[in-house]
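Chapter review: from sequence to fold.
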Amino acid sequence: MVSTPLHYVHAYTVYRASKKKLRLSYLVIGCIVPDIEIPILYLLGYPYPFDRLVLHSLIGSILFSWAVGLVLLPLYWRILRLLGLKFSHQINFGDYVAGVIISSEIHVIIDSAHHPYNPSLWPVTSQSIDNLILFGDWLQASNLMQILFLAALILILEYEAGIRDLVNSIVKLKLEDKGIY
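The token string follows.
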């Protein structure tokens, strides 16, 4: 399954596709929100793979993702601050709601393509909707999706941050420390 941090790939893709009209921070919050329910449901006694329900449904995501995201916003800002990133505390509420819901819905659709339990139509039904699972095999689909999203994340980092230059600089510093370079 695509791990939560790798969902950043879809947030970034939507951000670029919108020609930067949607704020990346709202999309990032939206891509994380559905997975917030997993540890909570697990602690409430829902075993894997049934630890996904409200926020992993198309309806639940629309209704609740933006509100859950508001709760996460201070934590998100704190993480950005710790990373030394500059950001605006000003929120355009309409843009915020739209960005979080769009990204959260995409998260639900992506997960529906490779998870063993997909309550996509909750509260209408909590039965798993498995029509989108790639190859009809959630494990094979999960492995493929994880690889594709990891590769996409590496490409994004390469493109945006020049990670190759960063890695080369780190390697050079390490070699200099050892007197090799």
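Two observations follow directly from the output. Residues 29 and 72 are 8 Å apart (CA to CA). The helical segments are 8-17, 24-32, 37-43, 58-82, 93-112, 138-161, 163-177.
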